[in-house]
Design goal:
Two copies of one chain form a homodimer.
Chain A: E1 7-12, H1 18-28, E2 33-35, E3 38-40, E4 54-56, H2 59-67, E5 71-77, E6 80-85, H3 86-94, E7 98-101, H4 105-114, E8 119-124, H5 128-137, H6 143-157, E9 165-168, H7 172-185, H8 194-208
Parallel strand pairs in A: 1-7, 1-8, 2-7, 3-4, 8-9
Antiparallel strand pairs in A: 3-6, 5-6
Helix pairs in contact in A: 1-7, 5-6
Chain lengths: 213, 213
Amino acid sequence: MKNDGLLIVLSGFSGSGKGTVMKRLMEKYPGEYALSVSATTRSPREGEREGIEYYFKTQDEFEEMIANDELLEYARYVEHYYGTPKFYVEDKRRSGIHVFLEIEIQGALKIKEKFPDTLLIFLVPPSIPELAGRLRGRGTESEDVVKARLSQARVESGYMDRYDYIVVNDDLEMCVEQVHDIVQVQKFQAKRSTELISRLQHQLDDFLKGENV
Amino acid sequence: MKNDGLLIVLSGFSGSGKGTVMKRLMEKYPGEYALSVSATTRSPREGEREGIEYYFKTQDEFEEMIANDELLEYARYVEHYYGTPKFYVEDKRRSGIHVFLEIEIQGALKIKEKFPDTLLIFLVPPSIPELAGRLRGRGTESEDVVKARLSQARVESGYMDRYDYIVVNDDLEMCVEQVHDIVQVQKFQAKRSTELISRLQHQLDDFLKGENV
């Protein structure tokens, strides 16, 4: 367990820049972080590759993964399943790589309940006018879509206090550093230092019993 | 409250290098950190200056400070009082400076109980043989004193899991950076971000009510 990578959830309002932050984080610290690849029953869109953007599954295959407890979490949106396969996450973590899940709040809270050691990070824009500007700036979103996304953000904001850390994505480089620092200091938490504590206690016991140290 | 400095307790086994770490931390980040100055009823030793090493008080003065609730914590060792005056800590914190208390475990746990927001950091040596070597290397400690200090460390080790973070002091510069990073990421904790959360919620409410944003 000692050198296992952490399981980290990165959530945030639509338009908060989760994808960009993840991309830059993995580019800047190669080999330290991985982004979990989800499984889904929806069809691949143009350019989407098996095992890169998603693992594409039939409904039967997906339901077999559920039955075999092969998913960390899953949800059904409209007529399709989306879920996080365990094998990818566990394999990376065992190699000491911190694995990020980019999932929404309900999934995040389910994961935290099942695996209390999960680190939950929520990404926010510096302000809502700034966020609205970013969403409009994409040029592809009608004003109704912008409003729907901010309405969704209002609902999500009610759960922000259930996260461990909240990071403002104003300057990208600074934001990436802050996420990196948050992850890096976790290993110093007393609750993650039980091996260190018992090693020192054993050495103290040996010393006090007069063994040669 | 928003930009107040944190209250931080740094504890650690005798010989773990608390003093050296604090000195280097304050040297490296001037204006960011302060070390609380204790009050005591014992007499100044050679070279000790009022308000620098300690605030020197008579027994009556100290007991008046206790009666007036002017101390964050205090304890009596042998025939002398030692305590942490509030005014210094509060004055610094209001200026956004993080204030360290270098106190032992019982005092630390009392402080944490009274002020749950306090950050508790415990400093340990890389190993007990290394610690024994450092204590012997001082040249001033008899083997009995070394043994007494390690016996005390064994007792203290039973409380390490009550701390928030445990940092190994192997390489001084690395240790100072780790303490600095731990302190710096605290401001991203969701529990310290209530103002940010409610600001964003108000802005979302304004936007969704159709006000111009």
